[in-house]
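Researcher: Sequence of FAD-dependent oxidoreductase follows. Predict its structure.
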Amino acid sequence: MPQYPEPYWRVGLDIPSFPKLDRDIEADVAIVGAGISGITTAYLLAQEGLKVVLLEASTILNGTTGHTTAKITAQHDLIYDELIHHFGEEKARLYYQANSDALQFIKDMVNEHQIECDFTEEDAYIYANTGEGVKQIQVEYEAYKKLGIVSEYVQSMPLPLEMQAAIVMKQQAQFHPLKFLLQLVQAFVGKSGIIYENTTAVNIEKGERPSVITRDGYRVTCKHIVSCSHFPFYEMPNLYFTRMYAERSYVLGVKTEKAFPGGMYLSADSPKRSLRYTNVNGENLVLIGGESHKTGQGICTIKHYEALEAFGEESFGITEIPYRWSAQDLITLDKVPYIGRLSADESNIFVATGYRKWGMTNGTAAALLLRDLIVGRDNPYQELYSPSRFHADPNIKAFITINVDVAKHLIGDKIGIVRRSPGDLYSDEGAIVNVNGKRACGYRDESGHLHIVDSACTHMGCELAWNSGDRTWDCPCHGSRFSVDGDVIEGPAEKPLKRIELE
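Model: Prediction complete. Tokens:
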């Protein structure tokens, strides 16, 4: 299997490093998670004159934000007819407006501060090439008209792809997310903001001045705590693992024979295909995304990259594939993010999660809302995004579906005889193996060294599955991911897997 560099966004970028927290400290606000929502919230609150501490379990800009396709748009797939059905026209319109506000905020920041981040305005298309897809497009277009969303229904588009109909939103945008956020990081530090990397938050001690407790036992005591980590590091009382599920999707960065005409594209039909470009040293790199599936489930993950490559070859002709990566996204019961106060009883603890693949606008909207809640300003989107909301339709059905699936994997995956032993593994192969009569995760690296760890996820004990595309162990229940040596890559798991030494 060929080795690939980091996602394009991080390659060649001079990202600063920050120390690990090694003592107890105090602040006005502690923010956990240094992705787009965490960094933007930290920047906004520092601009308000608050003392803000930003904690990151790994290194900044290395999680979902560093694995995005970086579309800045309010066109979030076929969502607005569904939102009208479940929430009503008023809240569906608020969702559109919140994401349009986020786009405008990013645009204003780029212009006012002259941020060089490859920002370009682009038209965004959802297109269909089947009869069923066209029907969905037509229904969605009617929803656009009800909500007053400026758009067009078209039967052609610049891309050389087969299509019958599309909806286009004009003047959406794309950018280099890390170049943009690095400017916010610098401005935040310039306002005496403090960042700690490799500092894992594991708990909250409640009170009038609550504290974030780290894995090493240190605490950050403050007036307000904000969880902007990809999966909330503090789940009580909302039990987010029962109210969200994780999906993985895949991206190829390719050079093509056919010129890319500009614009951003998403297919209404399955399998989903996402397309945009970015400029690299004067030539376009086309980003081909898609192949979503629930984390830890489905076919061999390398097959998803192969499917995207086949699509790209057929559509554009691929001359080179310099970059390849995958991303993980959390999806809530009703597909709207959870942003706001943790609960009515916890007025000084906040959460932001569940961006459903649209983190550039949803994450920015989260930062704007969190800023207003913390400084005491009115915000029209507070009720829409409230983490405590519950709507019988669709929440009950989605809740049952998610948790029945979890139960199936929690119990069913532990049944069955494992016949392979660690010695059976080929170079660069991972599989569930039998070690002393017990299941274990085994991987043999290209130098021949074996990496053996426990096969039960440390979150709730689900059996892990091998991800051959990313060389990780993934949990099919709640989306936790671990390295071949058992280190936590994605939550909700907080503890690493136990390493097993072979006799």
